[in-house]
Write a structure and sequence with these properties.
7-stranded antiparallel β-sheet, 479 residues, 2 domains, alpha+beta, 43% helix, two-stranded antiparallel ribbon, 12% strand, Serine Threonine Protein Phosphatase 5, Tetratricopeptide repeat
Length: 479
Amino acid sequence: MKTFSTFLLVLCVGAAIAFAAEQPSDSTMQRIQNFAQELVKQDLFSGNILIAEQENIIYQRSFGYADWEKKTPLSADTKFNIGSLTKDFTQVVILQLVQEGKLALTDPVGKHLSDFPDDIAKKVTIEHLLTMRSGMGDYLMYPDFKPERDTTVSQILQIIRTKPLFFKPGSEQRYSNSGYVVLGAIIEKITRSIYADNIVNRIFKPLGMNNSTFFSAGMGAQNTAMGTMFSLNGDKYNERQISRTFHPSPAGGVYSTVGDLLLFSRSLLNDERLLQPSSKMLFYGRYSATPPTANWNELRSKVRRAAAGGLPGWNSIVIELGNLNYTIIVCANVNDEFQAAEEVGTRISGILQNKPVPQMPLPVPMAMYKYIKEQGIQKFVADYKTVLRENDFEVPGPGFFNRFGYALLQKEKKSEWALEIFKLNTTLFPKNSNLFDSLGEGYMALGDTKNAIAQLEKAVQLDSRNENAKRKLEELKKK
């Protein structure tokens, strides 16, 4: 859980909807219009875009559908899962508690929460948690985290308490969803109110963010988009795995709109309903002990900030160009190894700053699939680093090729190609049990029982807790 009242005009191409009071006439805005036309042609984006200059919305438009399978149209008030942009709300409430004298950034975790080991309770501070320097990891990656079961801050905290630190607090920086759940727990402890109620009462209601909500799996929410994934051929389908079990937390997952996010950004930049100037200095100065300027007014004119959030099916970004008085907000309901909102937002930012803007890239899995169809699977395996580099993508972690392999296996029915991808992944990460489990499935799909058993046994050897591999082994050995 990572890191935009007008008139309505329906366009016939690409299910795009424009919400613009008038067509911009200057060259910069014409470049944005041209960019929008390219988005429609490429059909790689689905979501809402908003651009504001000071207090005025100068561009607002929707692309695609809220639900691609049902062809439900988007509207200006469609709600999107904003992922880790929720962390900004967590930071604001923490700073409000500082303003109220109820905590200090130097407070250790143990001052407010019990049952942590001493290396966390005494050495991890509020500031470490805010700046990702606590040494904590990501609860979403822990095997004992069950999203359908662990739905509250206190339930997630019980899991986080048992995990060791990755490094000495303050010595390094590493993205941590766990750290923000701990911040949420501190908020709950100090206020004696659940995290969601704090966000609603301290941020949403004061700003009139009436379209922002804590929406969990199984709940009904009006005018909410569906997270969307790309097939390797470019077809779009609803994301279902996460949507069946998803619950928001202080680390991410609130649903909001481009309009509500603009209200939040405007308040942070222009008024004191949420934060006093001294707190804004901390927020925009990234909690530096020595702020770069002596006062908020000076820093306000220099703000250049981008915050984004994403998860499968979703991606959002807020870009604030204080020096130019522009705010860009993009919420996308499509994301599959492709940060669509971030790609669009950064290009619009470049246009507003009169920079050259490259064409939107293909999502990397689609680019790889195209390469394999044209050049063959063996050439891809030999040249994968070059292919990724040409698509501005670094050599990924183990999950990337694993997901790609399953997409080939299950959706595209390319078992031979999937097997080669699973093989490649085990050579890249030879100690990862799950990848040998996947390789076993690849052999099973081709009817090669002998090799399937060998790979599944390797998976169990690497991790005796791999119950999936054990179950498959039992099934194969009974045949």
